[in-house]
Amino acid sequence: MKNKIRLGVNVDHVATLRQVRGGTTPYPSVLDMVKKSVKGGAEQITIHLREDRRHIQLHDLKLLAKECPVPLNLEMAATSQMVAFAKKYRPDWVCFVPEKRAELTTEGGLDVKKGFKKMAPMVEKLQRIGIEISMFIEPSIEQVEASYEIGADAVEFHTGKWVHLTGPRKEKEWKRLVDAAEWANYLGMNVHAGHGLDYGHSKMINKLPYLQEVNIGHSLICYALEDGLEASVRKMRKILK
User: Fold this and answer.
1) What is the per-residue pLDDT for 107?
2) Residue 12 known to bind ligand
3) What single DSSP character describes residue 166?
4) Is the pLDDT of residue 98 over 80?
5) CATH code for the domain of 197
6) Is 201 a catalytic site residue?
């Protein structure tokens, strides 16, 4: 019997709306939206504390580290400053992601092989204090193996490319996702996925072998404009069953 897929809700774009006015308004409240997400069925909350602080702020991390009613997953770049924040605020998970200042959103997976020497001590430091580690990567056997060698507990596959492709190219990318998921599971790592997932693609991602978790943000915030966040998360939770 296939396990239920854990739903992580990314609330970055709640903070985006607040920061549009330079953080001069207290609304929308990230914590309030976290609680609505959990009421709708979210089993994890994900935030990305970016270098440029375009949405989530340090005070959001500090607050959610104390008040989040479900496990907290911190997406972050592999920098000494971010490692220091993670050590101080102790999220349940840290997901290492690539980060470029000019990008609108995360454009692809992390090159774990290239950054191995830099990241390996970071992974060890965070795991030593009980934080679990995932690597946000492309569905590549090479990157899966590098993630295993660095000691990651999980890999999160970047699904954005698959979402946007059509026809035979979409089928080819799906095959890459399947092969990478099977290899990650064989090596003993948890299989996660995220980026660009809407209702339709979430129905499809159910078929990915060994998938244990998805992290979804942008589409849920968009759906919430019409249906409310709690109802949108509840619908997504139902799809992932």
Assistant:
1) 65
2) yes
3) -
4) yes
5) 3.20.20.70
6) no
205, 170 Cβ separation under 8 angstroms = no
Alpha carbon distance 17, 28 (integer Å) = 7
Confidence of residue 4 (pLDDT cuts 50, 70, 90): confident
Number of domains, the chain: 1
Note if 171 is an active site residue.
no
What is the rounded distance in angstroms from the CA atom of residue 44 to the CA atom of residue 70? 5
Note whether residue 113 is domain-resident: yes
Distance set, CA 199 to CA 19, 70, 97, 129, 170 (Å)? 27, 23, 24, 36, 17
- Please pick, among 99, 138, 173, 195, the residue that the annotation labels catalytic: 195
Question: With bands split at pLDDT 50, 70 and 90, how would you rate the model's confidence at 100?
Answer: low
Q: Which domain holds residue 155?
A: 7-239
pLDDT at 228 over 80: yes
Which pLDDT score is estimated for 87? 98
Instruction: Tell me if 135 sits within 8 A of 113, measured CB to CB.
Output: no
Per-residue model confidence as pLDDT tens digits over 115-138: 999 999 999 999 999 999 999 999
> How many beta carbons lie within 10 A of that of residue 67, not counting itself?
12
Flag whether 2 is in a domain. Answer: no
**Residue 65 CA, distance from chain mean position:** 16
The two most distant CA atoms of the chain are separated, in Å, by: 49
Catalytic residue status for 158: no
50 within some domain = yes
Asked whether residue 13 is marked as a ligand-binding residue, the answer is yes
For residues 34-54, average pLDDT:
97
Does residue 95 belong to any structural domain of this protein? yes
The residue annotated as part of the active site, out of 48, 158, 192, 201, is 48
